[in-house]
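We now fix the convention by which a protein and its fold are recorded. The integers have meaning only within a learned vocabulary of local backbone shapes. The record below shows the convention in full.
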Amino acid sequence: MVTDINSNTYINRELSWLQFNERVLQEAEDEGVPLIERLRFLGIFSNNLDEFFKVRYATVKRIDEAGKTGKSELGGISASELLEIITQIVIKQQSDSLHILAAIHKRLEDENIHIVNETQIDEAQHRFIKNYFIQHVSPALVIIILSELVKLPTLKDSAAYLAIKMELGKQQKQYALIEIPKSMDRFVVLPKKGLDNYIILLDDLLRYCMDDIFNIFEYESVSAHMIKITRDGELDFESDLSKSFIEKISDSVKHRQTGEPVRFVYDKTIDQETLLFLMNMMGIDSKDSVIPGGRYHNRRDYMDFPSLGRTGLLYDKIKPLPVKGLSLERSIFKNIAKKDYLLHTPYHTFSYIVKFLREAALDPKVKNIKITIYRLAQISHVASSLINAAKNGKKVTVAIELQARFDEQANIDYAEQMETDGVNLLFGVKGLKVHSKMCVIEREENNKIKRYGFLSTGNFNESTAKLYTDFTLFTSDQRILKDVVKVFDFFETNYKIFRYKHIIVSPHYTKTKLFKLIDTEIENVKKGKPAFIKLKLNSISSYMMVDKLYEASRAGVKIQMIVRGICCLVPGIKGMSENIEVISIIDKFLEHTRLLVFCNNNDPKVFISSADWMSRNIENRVEVTCPIYDADIKKELLDVFEISWNDNVKARMLCGSHENKYKHNNLPKVRAQFAIYNYYVDKLQE
């Protein structure tokens, strides 16, 4: 039973998220997307689903197990009903994904790329596979022999296992599990034959080598079916006062692997006897989402499908552009002392951030560097620049968020390294995640301290900067940076709440300030003055913010929203939201910029922000929304919004239903991400 979400004032957050993931799946289905990229979108779809079950499904399950309905938090649906709805939607999406994968496999054949299984191996491939198994696979295997007399070891979260059933004769059976090694490539490239490429999945390679693994059992027959378990991904903290905060986070990350199961996916061709045996041993119950799947799970591995040198089957790589007027070969301090600059990755190169920090690390006049860190790259030049600065005698303060979900271990490792090298670490504020993205540098000039810095919508992460769209404002505007320093003061003396004249800071002021901006538009439209609101967000799930936008819509304020992911607001409903339009763009890059525009009687107020309009961002995190004062940058951001709004290739219209309809019209084709890149190319040539 699927609830009609049009009947509610809000769209349930979890169901809206599943709509978003369906848009990702649509990219895998789109024949206009390069073939190997389609496989990678399937991988993203699967990876998203894993995280959804670890976090959101697990949360709803906790509500249900606590005996609560959760209707007020879940948009009018009870927790028990929602668990059932989610499972049904996911079963349908998983089925669709299998059909899409089969269609992609057929297209790969047309491109002379053959994915073979264990029944399709010739003599030359046989020799290669046997040698590969002995040299690379066998030493890494973890094999668990199952018995009702021996307790099953804890299966790893989101790891894929082959469930083995051996018929031993005289109706005797032996069960076992083979863990698919995460350390190994899932796709094994076999020797090429002429123009033909051959790939075998590691799963099928293991099936081919069953006798090498289990020959001691002298079985009569053997079968292998894949299973996967997903566990509750919430961190539970110990109250041990003798442990440091880093130690508690580290221990909690390790304990995540033993969290309660929330999803069990199995190959639907597995026999019932084996399935029940496994579910009993693993303690899977009716509260868990039990999903029949295909032959292969962990399709997130398709994100790393080998390119085979076939560049025509991938998106063309773009060359990141320079920011007009900002040189990587000269002092960035001298440039931004004169005016503000906007970095828009991945269209512009992330190198400006690293260059800025490296310059600060070397400059004798720089005295202090303060920065927030949420997610670092695996090899982080940002972190090495900060360590370099500390070694050069600068006072470096890093507010690092150790609870950045699923990146905790990487942040812990860098935190320990930075602490060893003299960086002053701040671990935020108890009960609040530090999600703001900002840096301020204090430099001595003419016996006075002058501040330089940047504020961003995204993490200071070299890897994601190639894939995520984000804005970063470089500025020496002392008004803004004085406020930024107050946020760092709050980290150190968080019993004291500061007042900010320019930036908007969660959790103390965001709701009040945003309501005031929206109220101005409501007042203006009532007076017959121009009024509009333009928002670009990753998600909006705060009911109080949704209600405020409904109020503005009822007053007659025109509202345009670009929302990539969760959207609990129902647009286009007469008497409630008829003046609100919402689109979502899923394409080559992950849309991650957050942009707020308020008409202000045709004198637009423009902001970039680290915060989405979710309850957690407004009430439970330290977030910063930064005003744009530079007229050129303000125009640039308005131009970028308009280009995105006019997308009629990759934009979907969000209508409050379960459908994800493309925004098609008879106007000239606009594919926003490609058009924005061309916009910046033209800017350089002006």
